[in-house]
Amino acid sequence: MLKIKEYVKAESLAQAYELNQKQANRIIGGMLWMKMGNVKIHTAIDLSGLGLDTVEEREDEFVIGCMVTLRQLEVDDRLATLGSGILRESVKNIVGVQFRNLATVGGSLAGRFGFSDVLTALLALDTEVELYRGGRIPLAKFAAEGAGSDILVRVFVKKDDRRCVYLSHRNTKTDFPVLTIAVSSGKNGIKVAAGARPQRAILVTEDESLKEICAPDIYNGRAGKEAIEIYAAQLASKIPTGSNMRASAAYRSHLAGVLIRRGLTALNESGKEERGMKDAD
Ligand SMILES: Cc1cc2nc3c(=O)[nH]c(=O)nc-3n(C[C@H](O)[C@H](O)[C@H](O)COP(=O)(O)OP(=O)(O)OC[C@H]3O[C@@H](n4cnc5c(N)ncnc54)[C@H](O)[C@@H]3O)c2cc1C
């Protein structure tokens, strides 16, 4: 059972940060994960009064406050333009709508959960996080190192040309994923984020030998089936997997190859469509 002795609705980030320096105190997001544990908290620090529950669109990026809910990620039409709607796609299988109305982006990233759909999807985009003291750092660095006693304030996602595909495999529809894969293709090459391995999500990129040939071909929809298979196998071989009650390491590794191949095939198809449209112009 979760026990909280005191509750403070923070009036500033400085106050929240100060309170969070005590080990017995904790920042609360939607509290959905926190309430599952047997934890004693001295002071629960609530950030909900600090205006961090909005999505702002700037010329070159989106700024997502840490108290934005997963449901906001799902239904915000502006965010749907990012990476072929990858954010919407990544959260849609997380429990249910009522749950997603409460779970926050801040809690989802700060928890650095191995099974996180949100972390996997954001890694495939050009994402940074802002820590109150630590400033702006790449999400991949944050995922590896965590926030310590800092506060994750905002998430920044660059607008760019990349197209994305998000795929997850679940044993039953709303269960934790067995594997999550996000594939993105842009002018700078292909990126694959893999989560629920069952360890925390990581980012893998192609070898230089394939980058020159396959990545532009997939982006432009000119890659053949065989090339995609070789490319998918190469990327999948870079993803370390493990076993847990949901699946074995061998199954996850096989799945990684299959999901990456499907992702690359879909990106190649969308490249073809875009080329078709350009040719028709
Ligand atoms: C039953 C269940 C099923 C789930 N299934 C999935 C799933 O299939 N896929 C998936 O991706 N996720 C899943 N989740 C995770 C969920 O989506 C959220 O990521 C999780 O609940 C954390 O979000 P929260 O807002 O509830 O955070 P909280 O539980 O409030 O906080 C989580 C942690 O983050 C810290 N924290 C919160 N906000 C901040 C901040 N701004 N700065 C620093 N630290 C902060 C808290 O102190 C705490 O340690 C599941 C969770 C549950 C309970």
Overall number of strands: 12
Distance between the termini: 62 Å
Order of helices and strands: EHEEEEHHHHHEEHEEEEEHHHH
DSSP helix fraction:
25-40%
Taking all residues together, what is the mean pLDDT?
Answer: 94
Number of helices: 11
Largest sheet: 5 strands, antiparallel
What would you give as the CATH superfamily of the largest domain? CO dehydrogenase flavoprotein, C-terminal domain
Number of domains: 3
CATH architecture of the largest domain: 2-Layer Sandwich
Sheet with most strands: strand arrangement: 4-5-8-6-7
Ligands in the model, by name, code or SMILES, are:
flavin-adenine dinucleotide
Low-confidence spans: pLDDT under 50, at least 5 residues? none
Task: Characterize the structure shown.
By secondary structure, the protein is α+β, with helices and mostly antiparallel strands. 35% of the residues lie in helices and 24% in strands. It has three domains: 3-46, no CATH class; 55-158, 2-Layer Sandwich (Uridine Diphospho-n-acetylenolpyruvylglucosamine Reductase, domain 3); 164-280, Enolase-like, domain 1, CATH 3.30.390. It has eleven helices and twelve strands. Strands 4-5-8-6-7 form a five-stranded antiparallel sheet. A four-stranded antiparallel sheet has the order 9-10-11-12, sandwiched between helices. Strands 1-3-2 form a three-stranded parallel sheet, covered by helices on one side. A hairpin with a 2-residue loop joins strand 10 (179-186) and strand 11 (189-195). Helix 10 packs across helix 11 (249-280). It is globular and about 60 Å long. Bound molecules: flavin-adenine dinucleotide (FAD).
